[in-house]
Amino acid sequence: MSEDLLTIRNKVSIFLLFAAFLSAMMGLVFVDVVWMSDELHEASFTEITQELLLAVIAALFIYHARKSPEQRPIRILVAGFFCCMLIRELDFLFDKISHGSWFWFALAVAGVSMIAALRHPRFLVSGLADFMRHPAWGMMTAGMLTILVFSRLFGMNELWQHLMPGDYHRTVKNMAEEGSELLGYTLCLFATLGYLMPSKKK
Question: Could you report how far apart the first and last alpha carbons of the chain are, in Å?
Answer without folding.
Answer: 25
